[in-house]
Amino acid sequence: MGIYTRTGDKGKTGLIGARVFKDNLRVEAYGTTDELNSFIGKAMTELPEGKFADLLEDLETIQHELFDGGGDLANVSDKRTDKLKAESVDVLERRIDELMAEAPELERFILPGGSAPSATLHICRTVARRGERQIVRLINSGEEVPETVLQYLNRLSDYLFAAARVANARLGQPDVEYVRSAKVFRNKTTKKKEDGGE
């Protein structure tokens, strides 16, 4: 099976329902979900299976969901049926809560890094944020975009932050705090004292 078609040699590509130039905002948006998917694949190769079976399962599911979301972004036909469902956002929220409960308490901003998989997950997080910005730009240009895709990428960046912190914690590698950061997050102990607890 050949992979080249020569149909893009004039700088255009095919959406589902239209042909557009390759620098089209919609192409940039779904292209970024593809880039994010690739970085997630790289992160998965850096996570040892024993300690990270749950994250590996999460990330493989996320790869499929990003493919779904990219397809939804690429579909401008009259017969669009969105593949990415709101339930996927709910699952991410539940997993964020679980991972943040496992990670060490956070008081200050942290720098991306620590262990190799954590650093890669932070790269994933920033690519997710870029994808989100591109979708907002697409919406602001007057284009119709499935709401779930935007919600999913917003929540996914939070999930990737939590996963990056857990990766460091499980590998015994502390997060690196930003040295000029004030205490911007209230930890559980601080909140207890403010609420009159021990």
From TrEMBL:
Name of a matching Pfam family: Cob_adeno_trans
GO molecular function terms noted in the UniProt entry: corrinoid adenosyltransferase activity
Keywords: ATP-binding, Cobalamin biosynthesis, Nucleotide-binding, Transferase
Domain Cobalamin adenosyltransferase-like: 3-167
Reaction equations catalysed: 2 cob(II)yrinate a,c diamide + reduced [electron-transfer flavoprotein] + 2 ATP = 2 adenosylcob(III)yrinate a,c-diamide + 2 triphosphate + oxidized [electron-transfer flavoprotein] + 3 H(+); 2 cob(II)alamin + reduced [electron-transfer flavoprotein] + 2 ATP = 2 adenosylcob(III)alamin + 2 triphosphate + oxidized [electron-transfer flavoprotein] + 3 H(+)
Pathway given in the UniProt record: Cofactor biosynthesis; adenosylcobalamin biosynthesis; adenosylcobalamin from cob(II)yrinate a,c-diamide: step 2/7
EC numbers: 2.5.1.17
Tree of life domain: Bacteria
Keyword hit for ATP-binding: yes
Entries under NCBIfam families matching the protein: PduO_Nterm (TIGR00636)
Family designation: Belongs to the Cob(I)alamin adenosyltransferase family.
Designated name of the protein: Corrinoid adenosyltransferase
Source organism per UniProt: Bhargavaea ullalensis
